[in-house]
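Anyone able to model this chain together with adenosine-5'-triphosphate?
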Amino acid sequence: MNAIEIHDLHKGFEGFSLKDVSFSVPQGTVMGFVGENGAGKSTTIKCMLNLVKKEYGDILLFNKDHVEHEQSIKKDIGVVFDELHVPETLTATQLDKIMKKVFKTWDTNYYFERLAQFNVPKKKKIKELSRGMRMKLSIALALSHHPKLLILDEPTSGLDPIIRDEILDLFLAFMQDETHSILFSSHITSDLEKIADHITLIHNGEILLSESKDALLYEYGIFKGSLEEVNELPEHAIIRKRNGVFGIEALVLKKEVNEIFKLERPSIEDIMLFFVKGCV
Ligand SMILES: Nc1ncnc2c1ncn2[C@@H]1O[C@H](COP(=O)(O)OP(=O)(O)OP(=O)(O)O)[C@@H](O)[C@H]1O
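re: yes, here you go
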């Protein structure tokens, strides 16, 4: 089963549109949703959550239409945005009382255990918490009704590497249950490299690729050389080319290239740059 299935999603704003966005997130996997600023990640996520009305296209969450079954679906979803959208004068303890009324499955013990684990003070007002603490509070809030799907919109942006690592560990712990799934939007590609099973790249409102991370990292290679050397590569092996510091760089399909060409292993960031900035 797919936790998320999006087909031909379209949403237009003045000067920007999501164009036929399609991808799916199999249950039990983490999808890294990557793209530069303004690529359309948050708009896609907001359409999924029906916070922004789509123009057309189908969105299925747990095989159910996201609008028709909105109420029942949302019980099984935890959402983390890059900011905590609750009144700043509230404390974590006060939020517990509110969340109890929102979710029947709200687990107060589990919530306070997470706060203790993350060292988030219970009695401080949100405005007095550091950005890292707010994000951890936001994650505790998203987890404590025991969702099956986490939708994370830049949950690690603006955080230092140590806190980011701790937060990634929390998500990995969440994934120990094989019925759980995560959609993780980020432009911190190293975070996605650690946690994602699949990568979807969006650029200017269009999906440029949606593939298994291992396939991307192990099936692609980078060849660096002069224009003449790059021209010796079989044409069908070349995915994208771009100007490098000392010549031309080509992203190639490893299996289509003779071993005499020395290839470097790409990172997700390299692949993203080739697709966004390179040419065919
Ligand atoms: N409510 C809105 N009204 C008009 N334009 C909008 C609205 N929401 C988003 N946009 C535009 O849609 C485009 C995509 O924005 P979006 O927030 O989806 O990108 P993003 O990939 O999440 O970027 P970032 O990584 O910076 O958060 C941007 O050009 C943005 O200005």
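Residues 13, 16, 35, 37-43, 187 surround adenosine-5'-triphosphate (CB under 6 Å).
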